[in-house]
Amino acid sequence: MSLKEKVRNLKAHPLLQVLANNGGNPRTLVLIEPLWGIPYNLISPFATLYMYTQGITDVQIGLILSIAMVFQVLFSFFGGILSDKLGRKFTTMMGDFFGWSMACLVWAVSSNFWLFLAAALLNCFEQINQTAWYCLLIEDAHPKDLVGIYTWVSIGGLVAIFFAPLSGLFVSSYSIVPVVRVLYFLFALTMLAKTLITFKFCRETKQGKIRRAETKGVSIPHMLGEYRQLIPSLLKDRSVLKAVAVSVILYVTNMVSTNFFGLYVTQRLGLSENFLALFPILNAAVMLVFMVGVQHRMNATRFRVPLWIGLGLYSAAALVLIFAPVNSLGFVLLYVFFAALAAALVNPRKDALLQLNIAPQERARLNALIMASTIALSSPFGYFAGLLSSLDRRLPFVLALLLFVTAMLIIGRIQEPQVEEASAETPENAG
């Protein structure tokens, strides 16, 4: 095969076609996602140990998670309103600046419970960003390309994982606290750059302009009051409720994995802290191979079977970790492999499934309401998981296993969404 033919085949790859068919906001946001993904994934394996090393206990870590979740609920409610009144673009920029740049500066100097709590509360601004960012990402995109777009978002974060050995190397050379402080400071700078790029290259969506015009002159208290009409309509929509239930479960299990995996493998299984940088690399490699080589061969408009298989893999991963013997690196690597396959199947589809079941006209406020509900329902689990970990570091993962099985039962009862009828919006930014 000639070089030209190889290039032509590469350009014809379905994932590249997704970017070609969805220019403007989707393409810009996908391409700048590593500015968040690189520093986040460099820090995340060490974030809990960074707190633990400075005297923050398991229960205090769980308490910080739960308190932050309460505030995240409040911020989420206002996220939908601000996205409508200020526009998706400006609200995204505000969330990136306060929720990440400023929060990371505080994390960089944190040394006690109160500073860590302050950083976590600043990070709650990210919930405002989440609502606006999702709208900015997909509102002018083709509905049939949503799984592909969310796959690109995942890839943008995964690329960063291959920088992880640098953080592991620095931690082994200089110790965890000074290294993580520097990484948080760099995180603040990259998110400032991301904010400026969003300002320069993104534009307000068609639906965002409509909602900004419709809400002009409408007070925020009045818009908050309108949730009284939105909540009953949401509760009557069984398709949305099932998608929300799965999102809540995955939110909780991700919280367990993010905050207690590092403690489990180092404090109970006895593995070196240096391995914490290896596990994300394996996870990213498996996910990237699957997403680039396999994902596009699956029907992007079918959700139930891939989600069910992914949740089954998550369950298998949890079982492997729970029964892993002390000092058994092989068991932990098997856990990471199963969890990576599961994430590649589940993450793009659970996000797309939720968006395809939401009315485009109220996407911002419904997303905000769903996000607030997800966080509110998940908030007790932060403290509960911390308490379980203080009793036995296996118990948070037993909880995750039970939740994965519950999600499998829910997925078995969902109906496939009608993708072509899911949105009447025209992809304004395509091309």
Q: Major sheet, described briefly?
A: none
Order of helices and strands: HHHHHHHHHHHHHHHHHHHH
Strand content: under 5%
- The shape is globular
Gap between N and C termini, in Å? 29 Å
Helix content: over 70%
Question: Which structural class is indicated by helix and strand composition?
Answer: mainly alpha
Question: Taking all residues together, what is the mean pLDDT?
Answer: 83
How many beta-strand elements? 0
Quaternary class:
single chain
- Put simply, the count of helices is 20
- The residue ranges in which pLDDT falls below 50 over 5 or more consecutive positions are 421-431
Taking Cα atoms only, what radius of gyration do you get, to the nearest Å?
21 Å
Would you write up a description of this structure?
There is one protein chain. The longest helix is centred in the middle third of the chain and has 31 residues, at 238-268. Helix 10 runs antiparallel to helix 11 (176-201) and helix 15 (238-268) runs parallel beside helix 19. It is globular and about 60 Å long. The chain is built from 20 helices and no strands. It is mostly helical and 431 residues long. The protein has helices at residues 3-11, 14-21, 25-32, 34-53, 58-86, 88-109, 113-122, 126-138, 146-158, 164-174, 176-201, 206-214, 220-225, 227-236, 238-268, 278-293, 304-322, 329-356, 363-391, 395-411.
